[in-house]
Design a protein that fits this description.
The protein is α+β, with helices and mostly antiparallel strands. It contains 4 helices and 5 strands. It has a 5-stranded antiparallel sheet with strand order 2-3-1-4-5. Helix 2 runs antiparallel to helix 4. The longest helix is centred in the last third of the chain and has 19 residues, at 109-127. The chain starts with 21 loop residues before the first strand and ends with a strand. GO terms for molecular function: cyclic pyranopterin monophosphate synthase activity. It catalyses: (8S)-3',8-cyclo-7,8-dihydroguanosine 5'-triphosphate = cyclic pyranopterin phosphate + diphosphate. Residues 13-147 form the Molybdopterin cofactor biosynthesis C (MoaC) domain.
């Protein structure tokens, strides 16, 4: 059985040594609500800090690669693909979608969730000077494929 507790009830990293290497993929999303004027600044390229989406995308990718340094007991993974996309949703939101994949012995859900979360925080950081009331909301796993526990698909919003 996979557990984060050893025989004495102490936290430890799950031993995946005997698990088969399989293709695994996870998709997570986060949404950031903001003033319509803030979204307009981002979309028109008029934001004083430049291309907000590009910086948030890079931050999300970097975060996925370093998830094991941020989340206790996560395995360091050799991700074979990380994609972070940001979508403007008029009039007042940005949806962030992060996709992580690999061929390995453990899943990539935490990497996808971390990528989406950090991209959202980066978006907030870059825009806080013009809109301190932004809200990061609904960070969640959308889907996962592969591994012993099988596939998962979230219900649509």
């Amino acid at each position: 059985m996979l557990t984060h507790l050893d025989s004495q009830g102490r936290a430890n990293m799950v031993d995946v040594t005997d698990k088969a290497v399989t293709f695994r993929e996870a998709v997570a999303q986060s949404r950031v609500r903001m003033l319509p004027q803030t979204l307009e600044l981002i979309q028109t390229g008029g934001h004083p800090k430049g291309d907000v989406f590009a910086v948030a995308r890079i931050a999300g990718i970097q975060a996925a690669k370093r998830t094991h340094e941020l989340i206790p007991l996560c395995h360091p993974l050799l991700l074979t693909g990380v994609k972070v996309e940001l979508f403007a949703e008029a009039p007042d939101a940005v949806r962030i979608e992060a996709r992580c994949k690999l061929a390995g012995q453990t899943g990539v859900e935490m990497e996808a969730l971390t990528a989406a979360s950090i991209a959202a925080l980066t978006l907030y950081d870059m825009c806080k000077a013009v809109d301190k009331g932004m809200v990061i909301e609904s960070t969640r796993l959308l889907s996962k494929h592969g591994g012993k526990s099988g596939d998962y698909q979230a219900e649509p919003d």
